[in-house]
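Box 4.2: Ligand-aware structure prediction
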Amino acid sequence: MLDSTSKRILFHTGNKGKFLEAREYMISKGIKLELLSDYESEIHVIEPQMNNFNEVATSKLRQVLEQIGNKFDDDWMMVEDSGLLIDELGGFPGPYSSYVYSKIGPNGILRLMDGVETRSARYTASISVWDGNKIQSFEGFCEGVIAVEPRGNRGFGYDPIFIPIKGDGRTFSEMTKLEKSRLSHRANALNILSDAILVPSI
Ligand code: IMP
């Protein structure tokens, strides 16, 4: 359990958008999240090509743990693997979301979806955490539909083309960070995580 004397988790990610969202959400839970790369820049993690977000996140976390040795013994470590799964495209881009984003971006996805009526999709986030003894994993989801054109300028990744079902018709990019965090896959996973790891206050 995470107690008030050790409320720091170091997050290994190269994605600033993910980090900023997760940090803001965890602040609301009283947990301090910091970037591992601010303390250790020489971590090189290979993303395994697997279809399972949980296995990818756990594999990346194990690689981080191997590389840091006992350097951060007092801190918890965290890694997230996430992605967008579009039903009509058989779950594509899924675990390849980051690569596909860098190659064709949201506009490329819109071209693949041109004329497609069934636009249901979901975001998944799998978060793995090391508490000094063991790895625990937590998963969050967000159901939505793919917009017909990009809208908004906030967020990151596929947010301009993702409309969450439980929202009011705006894309994630048209929402504030707080609005997105009420609905997002990342916030759902972090919520389960914080419930599981926080020492209940008496
Ligand atoms: P990875 O977890 O580093 O493999 O990257 C996941 C990719 O999925 C990101 O680079 C984004 O393209 C996409 N993604 C995951 N979560 C979000 C989100 O909350 N908004 C927009 N795109 C996301």
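In the box above, the bound molecule is inosinic acid. Residues 8-197 form a domain with the Maf protein fold (CATH 3.90.950.10).
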